[in-house]
Amino acid sequence: MAEASVTLTVNGREVSATVDPRTLLVHFLREQLQLTGTHVGCDTSQCGACTVHLDGRAVKSCALLAVQLEGADVTTIEGVGGPDEMHPMQTAFKENHGLQCGFCTPGMVMKGIDIANRHAAPDEATIRRELEGNLCRCTGYHNIVESIAAGAREMSG
Amino acid sequence: MYPFTYHRPASLDDARARLAASEDGRPLAGGMSLIPTMRFRLSSCSDLVDLNAIDGLAGIERHEGGIRIGAMTRHAAVEASAEVREAIPALAALAGSIGDVQVRNRGTIGGSICFADPAADYPAGILGLGASVNTDRRSIAADDFFTGLYETALEDGELVVSVDFPVPERAGWAKFGNQASRFAVVAVMVSLAGGAVRLAVTGAKSHVFRVPEMEAALAADFSAEALEGIAVASEGLNEDLHADAAYRAHLVGVMAKRAVRAALAP
Asked: Which of A116, B120, B192, B247 is deepest in the core (most CB within 10 A)?
């Protein structure tokens, strides 16, 4: 099948690439752009480890084709902050012990930012409901919920 | 995934032409079901015609007769819509119970009903609220739209453009969702409009269905108590690792009562 070209913005930078139309956004990010912070957790579109922001909203990058994203604006975990300058949500996960193995954490942080963008002071019930699409196998969610509450407070303050 | 040629038409006419010219083309809406099934090689197509770049297919309009929702309207938009929440809060509740936030940010009403997953939520909303599905060729009544497992009344190349929902006096949504996938194990939409009751069940059979015995009882007395003793037979109901047929039959009764209570809630 014919390769297709796509031009989109990833973490504020314009990227043009040629892709096999079958390439999922998550594989495009990880393998073509070397942005490996976005994880593949389940391969069944249920775990949320691959969550990125598409035009400002949380989506699963394993359920989108890269070729669909002509003109789109994508933000990954690398785009929100790094070791030298962490995003308030990343700091909140660190300070509240919001991770153990860390595999689901990029998706959790991206989802946490998405929650904070839509809810100024989310309560526990709101955060837990909003996290339905993000699975964690180690923490039991308690500290993730605390982290997102703290990160949202910091972001709105 | 099996290989396919990707198309991104900018108009409905162009989409139609590309589907017509393809050997085995499929339209792509939100892709929340289609892309995963293509990934698992459970489905394939020669051409994938992406509808996301076509203007005018998304949006929610309140008009005298009811609410019109464009085919490419995302679930999150229906969930958050002030018009839908005011006129048919049960429909906003249904949209807000689909999958998870990430799925609702991308999935569309048109995609959901065309895919016609036996456990999808919108089919119960369409049938339970007596909506009409508008295509590029005609309007299809809810009772005629869903015809079988992943089957609808749509003809080859026919595209859904919008869905018209009449505004009922009351409506209620109740869902028993699978804990992992959030698909409906059993979910019920009930509505009362002009003395007529519609009660539609999804998740329990090959495709969404109404329960006439329950509708008759509710038409006489719109209360959860009126459903006491009305059982749905377990023959022909779905069985899988999540629920056997007898449990699903039981859940239909429980969800029907919860839907009625939700409809009566202030």
From this structure: B120
